[in-house]
Amino acid sequence: MTQPHTPREAWIIGASQGMGRALAEGLSRQGWKLWLSARSRGTLEPVAERTGGTALALDATEAESLREAAETVFANSQPELVIMNVGDYQPMPAVEFDAGLFERLNRSNYLSCVYLLDALIPHLRGRGGQILLNVSAAAFRGLPLGAPYSAPKAATLNMAEALRPELSAVGISLRVINPGFVRSRLTDKNPFNMPLLLEPEVAARRIIDQIDSSGFEIAFPRRLIWTLKLLRCLPYRLYFWIVDRWVLRR
Fold first, then answer.
1. Which parts of the chain have pLDDT scores under 50?
2. Measured over all CA atoms, what is the biggest interatomic distance in the chain, rounded to whole angstroms?
3. Out of 112, 136, 138, 194, which residue is the most buried by the measure of CB atoms under 10 Å away?
4. What are phi and psi of 139, to 5 degrees?
5. Which helix (H) or strand (E) is 174 found in, with range?
6. Tens digits of residue pLDDT in 42-58
7. 129-134 and 81-84 strand pairing
8. Alpha carbons 49 and 7: distance in angstroms, whole number
9. What is the pLDDT of residue 2?
10. pLDDT of residue 6
11. What distance in Å separates the CA atoms of residue 21 and residue 1, rounded to the nearest whole number?
12. Residue 67 Ramachandran class (φ > 0 left, ψ -120 to 50 alpha, else beta)
């Protein structure tokens, strides 16, 4: 007798628009059972209806909100994959330095991941599972106008690098997504040309294609990623010369 197929389960946080919504739609087409979270129930529920997922509104910048949501999800299902896709962005010229903007983006882009790990590790330890943190290629090197965004992204990448070996020992696969430019309400704020800009559906397909791989990083598009990784390796004197000449054009 053929055994009934058990759908794979995932929880996507930040699923109401952009790449998160595209991930939900892509996984749904592959038969995954989904829990979908975002701050706004109004934008989340239409995505849940289209994908057959369960909507669970939360505020990822609040530790208790994530902890309560994790209790609900794991009391009712056994997701093998959790994707953190929450983020915020605002360009900031250095002469308009704004500590409040740093605080806001730190909560969205770094502390949200800290709170998620705090909520998830007790549930996944021993049971196993994969956690995918959407970081950014901006984590590789600081660039003009992007300090409040790239600093917490760099902190998230560093944290994941530090935690991955220890979490692997207890059955948890911690991985990162480092995309280049993906069209969204956030990248629409950029006042400059964005090379190799991808549509969210294209980015989602690239992530889904690598969900079952074992590597630490899912990064794309390759031409941009390798350029930024090369910049990461350059001596500061040469790096700042390139920034002055080609980014600030001085």
1. 1-2
2. 72
3. 112
4. -70, -15
5. strand 172-179
6. 999 999 999 999 999 99
7. parallel
8. 18
9. 47
10. 83
11. 37
12. alpha
Query: Using CA of residue 61, residue 67, residue 70, residue 72, what is the dihedral sign?
Result: negative
Contact 12, 20 (CB under 8 A): yes
DSSP state of 231: H
Say what the pTM is: 0.94
Structure tokens at 5: 């197929």
Q: Locate 115 and state its tokens.
A: 């709170």
Write the Ramachandran bin of 249: left for phi over 0, alpha for psi from -120 to 50, otherwise beta: left
Residue for token pair 């939900």: 24
In one letter, which amino acid is 26? G
Domain locations in the chain as residue ranges: 9-247
**Residue 100 token pair:** 């409040």
Nearest to 41 by CA among 63, 7, 69: 69
3-state secondary structure of 146: coil
Report which secondary-structure segment, H or E, holds 11: strand 9-13
How close are the terminal C-alpha atoms of the chain, in Å?
Answer: 72
Chain centroid to CA 101 = 19
List the strands of the sheet with 9-13, edge to edge: 54-55, 33-37, 9-13, 81-84, 129-134, 172-179, 217-220
Residue 42 C-beta-side C-alpha neighbours within 13 Å: 0
Residue 144 contacts residue 247 (beta carbons within 8 Å)? yes
**pLDDT attached to residue 3:** 52
